[in-house]
Amino acid sequence: MNGRTYIPKDGRVVPESGPGLEALDYQEYEALKAYIKFDGDLDAANAELSRDPTNTPAHRARALELFRHHSRYRG
């Protein structure tokens, strides 16, 4: 549907690939959630993310690349 590929997961069907979908690893996803949670306040989000030593600047950069397309981005 809509050029996307779907797979069964945990009793439901979820998109796996296709237009508009970006594959994120766990840390990138956590960074993206923090940027959204703090309404685009990147300093506050990064302060929280810095408490997790496994969340690196590279993870945050990838999340920020995607967050720039979100309505809460204030850049």
Question: Secondary-structure map with pairings?
Answer:
Blueprint: E1 5-9, E2 12-17, H1 26-37, H2 42-49, H3 57-67
Antiparallel strand pairs: 1-2
What structural keywords apply?
75 residues; alpha+beta; two-stranded antiparallel sheet; 3 helices; 2 strands; 15% strand
What does this protein look like?
The chain is of the alpha+beta class and 75 residues long. It is 41% helix and 15% strand. Strand 1 and strand 2 form a beta hairpin. The chain is globular, with a radius of gyration of 14 Å.
Summarize the entry for a quick read.
This protein is about 40% helix and about 15% strand.
| Backbone structural class | alpha+beta
What gyration radius follows from the Cα positions, in whole Å? 14 Å
Distance between the termini: 33 Å
- How is the largest sheet built, in terms of strand order? 1-2
Low-confidence stretches: none
| Percentage of residues in strands | 5-15%
* Global shape: globular
What percent of the residues sit in helical stretches (DSSP H or I)?
A: 40-55%
- The SSE string, one letter per element, is EEHHH
Number of helices: 3
Instruction: Provide the residue-averaged pLDDT.
Output: 92
Largest sheet: 2 strands, antiparallel
Number of strands: 2
